[in-house]
Design goal:
The chain is α/β, with parallel strands linked by helices. It folds into two domains: about 5-185, no CATH class; about 195-370, Alpha-Beta Plaits (2-Layer Sandwich), CATH 3.30.70. Helices cover about 60% and strands about 10% of the residues. It has twelve helices and eight strands. The strands form two sheets. A six-stranded mixed sheet has the order 1-3-4-2-5-6, sandwiched between helices. It has a two-stranded antiparallel ribbon with strand order 7-8. β7 (about 360) and β8 form a beta hairpin. The radius of gyration is 31 Å and the shape is elongated.
């Protein structure tokens, strides 16, 4: 199952949030100013201005909650683009003043803040409503059907059409660029599995927080290709790349949809096994090891892997990357092509041998601390 990148989605929502806040603020200022200076208008018109100001102030307050951003975007379009702005255009100065320019911009806004078919529909509806108001104004409010008034009306309608087309092209460019950047930030270009940054920031850290909050479990495996340098030296780096690609493709086929595979860096891969325990993870890791050892990679290359496995549960969610790395070191030292599970196979008596001078591992609680500090690390 393809997960949505939380970081990028939040970034998009914040941009939409700022656009809504800016436009709603302009409308509030416009309404408040005219409430005080436009005494020639009827009570009903001033009432509409007041209601629109209050509605936009409420929208601004609600807009602070980023999880409601799509609802707020829809609310903004309905309140302003469909109702208030067309009404004020018809009952105000028409083609003169500030509002026509704001109306033209409003036709393109739905495309950007909704970024889907709803945005196109909303923009077309907005342009249609304003076009109808412009024609009504031309016939019923303008000083006669003189050439200048007709020219203003046609120019206004054409400008809205151009704004919709321009906004559509800009939105397509923006979203396609964002998708490309997201792909670069999410996937390893060579193996087409996820990259280290995505695995840590978008998968491991959120999953750790979830386990700490509500419980549950997940397991984590760190895998290294045995003697990968020899493959590069004997066959060349091109075939080393083939080996990485073949193993990456095999891993994607051997895990479930809810699991995640990433390239940790170099010839190392990392795998997250969701909601399974120690024994099951160890069995799956062994099947992965056996399957990879049977692969015949392009050029007749045969490869084996060593795997370190750790299971994370509530209360024991720190230092697991380092612990998986220590299990991997033990697998290498014991002859490679082996799975070492921290909970089952790891030799904790040999822990001091593996400890870095900067690390302090509490083997009883499965936690890793920075030396001289109580701060837990990964």
């Amino acid at each position: 199952m393809e997960r949505t990148s939380t970081t990028y989605q939040i970034d998009i929502n914040k941009k939409i949030q700022r656009i809504i806040a800016f436009c709603a603020s302009l409308i509030v200022v416009y309404n408040i100013v005219f409430l005080f200076i436009d005494n020639d208008q009827s009570f009903g018109h001033l009432l509409v201005l007041g209601i629109a100001a209050i509605a936009n102030i409420i929208l601004l307050n609600r807009n602070r909650k980023i999880e409601l951003i799509q609802f707020n975007a829809t609310l903004y379009i309905i309140i302003n683009s469909f109702l208030f702005l067309p009404y004020t255009f018809y009952n105000g100065q028409g083609f003169n003043g500030f509002l026509p320019y704001f109306a033209i911009i409003s036709c393109g806004l739905p495309l950007f803040i909704q970024q889907n078919k709803k945005g196109i529909t909303s923009s077309v509806i907005t342009a249609t409503i304003f076009s109808i108001m412009a024609i009504f104004y031309l016939f019923f409010k303008a000083d006669g059907l003189i050439k200048n008034n007709i020219y203003q009306c046609v120019s206004f309608i054409v400008a809205m059409g151009f704004m919709i087309v321009f906004s559509r092209l800009f939105t397509l460019l923006y979203t396609s660029s964002l998708r490309k950047l997201k792909e670069i930030a999410t996937f390893d270009n060579l193996t087409k599995v996820k990259n280290r940054r995505y695995m840590i920031d978008e998968v491991l850290i959120p999953r750790e927080a979830l386990v700490n909050k509500i419980g549950g479990r997940f397991s984590f495996a760190l895998m290294d290709i045995d003697n990968f340098k020899n493959i590069n030296d004997e066959f060349g780096h091109k075939y080393g790349d083939y080996t990485l690609q073949a193993i990456g493709a095999a891993l994607k086929c051997m895990v479930r949809e809810i699991d995640e595979v990433a390239r940790f860096g170099g010839d190392e891969f990392m795998i997250l096994f969701d909601n399974i325990g120690v024994k099951e993870t160890r069995e799956i890791a062994n099947r992965i090891r056996e399957t990879i050892s049977e692969l015949v990679i392009e050029g007749g290359i045969k490869a084996t892997v060593s795997i370190g496995v750790v299971t994370i549960v509530k209360g024991h969610t720190s230092g697991y990357l380092r612990m998986a790395d220590l299990c991997l070191i033990q697998a290498k030292e014991e002859g490679r092509n082996k799975v070492i599970s921290y909970e089952i196979d790891f030799d904790k008596k040999r822990g001091n041998k593996y400890k870095s001078s900067k690390d302090n591992i509490d083997w009883n609680t499965n936690k890793l601390y920075k030396k001289g500090s109580n701060e837990m690390t990964y």
